[in-house]
Amino acid sequence: MKRPLLAILTAAMLCSPLAAVSVHADEVRSRMIRFGYGLNENSNQGRAAKLFAEEVAKASDGKLKVRTFGAASLGSDDQMQSALIGGAQEMMVGSTATLVGITKEMAVWDTPFLFSSAEQADAVLDGPVGRQVMDKLEEKGLVGLVYWENGFRNLTNNTRPITRLEDFSGVKLRVMPNPVFLDTFKLMGANAVPLPFSELFTALETKAVDGQENPFNTILSSKFYEVQKYLTVTNHVYSPWIVTVSKRWWDGLSQTEQNILMEAAKKARDFERQDTREEAARALAELKDKGMQINEVDPAEVQRMREQAAPAIQKVVDTVGQQLFDQVQAEAEKAAL
Ligand code: TK8
């Protein structure tokens, strides 16, 4: 009685998809990896995605082929995240802010004015708490590899230069689909509307919205200067990007394959952060050349905006929990020294 049952079970196991994909720890197979991102090819995101693909090819003797898809051609951040979870796409890079609906802990990076320098952000994101937040993705079907730099966000609009808190009044502002961003700009008095990045240029062009906020790099690479007049230097929040992998797919890889992807993601991260900072340093002058009218905000006004944003910060605390929030604050303070 026992024997046939065992035989059936063994046969079933051999035929199951799990058994079929089992690989040796050091094996590297021929695989195609679809890597999606939202910005243009000619952007900091695009350049780093290309470097990632090259590094993976080099380290795997061309067996692992990364095909990059820019300009949201595989979908918005949200759509790609779902595709990764379902296993229909292997990899992507996108904003941590668009992951909050999946992993609420990601909202900790949305805290307005959390970091005051990029180096401070690196230390916290690459440190233990950055990893801890990233690891939370796994229970939702995603594997986080590394954080890349999107950068400090600044405001553009067509209504008026933002010099004081009151200037936000009535400005229809696109924000990322994220509750903290939505609340923050509502608190400022703007008419904040969530919209995927992939729809942003058209929304600005057709005047469906008056303004948006993104780092200098993106304002430049996405040609927002063609459809936006005023640029206000607010640096209101540092935005990370995060490189993620479909867990369903990742779990079928050998140890060596996983290592190749991880090492290439790190190399691309280091390249991308340097590239982003160099570009950001000259972007402001370029945007001025392109005809944007640029203004800074008086520190006293920035302080008023910070105070106005306090309830949004409380929302972050309520979302991620006091403990994680405090831990991030403590590591940020340590890194600021
Ligand atoms: C690109 C987005 C973008 C982000 C946004 O897909 O949505 O404004 O800053 O970088 O992730």
TrEMBL record:
**Might you report a single GO cellular component term?**
outer membrane-bounded periplasmic space
> Which Pfam families does the record associate with it?
DctP
Concerning Gene3D superfamilies, the annotation shows: Bacterial extracellular solute-binding protein, family 7 (3.40.190.170)
Q: Name one GO biological process term.
A: transmembrane transport
Q: Which InterPro entries match?
A: DctP_fam (IPR018389), TRAP_DctP (IPR004682), TRAP_DctP_sf (IPR038404)
Molecular-function annotations in GO: carbohydrate binding
Q: Where is the signal peptide?
A: 1-25
- Keyword tags: Signal
* Key word Signal present: yes
Query: Which NCBIfam families is this protein grouped with?
Result: dctP, TRAP_S1
> Which protein, by its recorded name, is this?
TRAP dicarboxylate transporter, DctP subunit
Q: Which organism is it from?
A: Ectopseudomonas mendocina (strain ymp)
